[in-house]
Amino acid sequence: MPKKVINPKTAPTPIGPYNQAVTIDNLVYTAGQIAIDPKSGQLVGGDVSTQARQVLTNLKNLLEGAGSSLEKVVKTTVFLKDLNDFNAMNTVYAEFFKGDQAPARSTVQVARLPKDALIEIDAVAFLSD
């Protein structure tokens, strides 16, 4: 099965030479999402909770544009500018990923993120049948 590029209008336009998501076989791989408002193209929120909510909304829209959903996510990677923001991020994350349906996850602190964002999340999900 050939690779298919996914760039839905409901997710932010890439800020570099990459695609928002790529599907192959029955999987979708997303690019890392930061808290960019898809309409304005601007970074939103000055705190990690606000940014996490926008990031996860962007991820939801991107996955749906690819024919998947948050419920079909099997793995995420969370990049935090400050690991002290873990609890605040985790609270918002739990609003989007519930209980035993939550995917596997890695969370790491990084030195810097694009546009000086506080959080970035990427995902791997399976596609709808």
| Shape type | globular
Strand order of the largest sheet: 1-2-3-6-4-5
Please give the radius of gyration in angstroms. Answer: 14 Å
Order of helices and strands: EEEHEHEE
Main sheet? 6 strands, mixed
Do you know the CATH topology? 60s Ribosomal Protein L30, Chain: A
CATH architectural type: 2-Layer Sandwich
Superfamily (CATH H level) name = RutC-like
Mean of the pLDDT scores?
A: 95
* Beta-strand percentage range: 25-35%
Oligomer: single chain
- Would you count the extended β strands for me? 6
**Poorly predicted segments:** none
Taken together, the total number of domains comes to 1
Task: Report the span from N to C terminus.
Answer: 15 Å
User: How many helical stretches?
Assistant: 2
CATH structural class:
Alpha Beta
- Structural category is alpha+beta
Helix fraction, binned, reads 10-25%
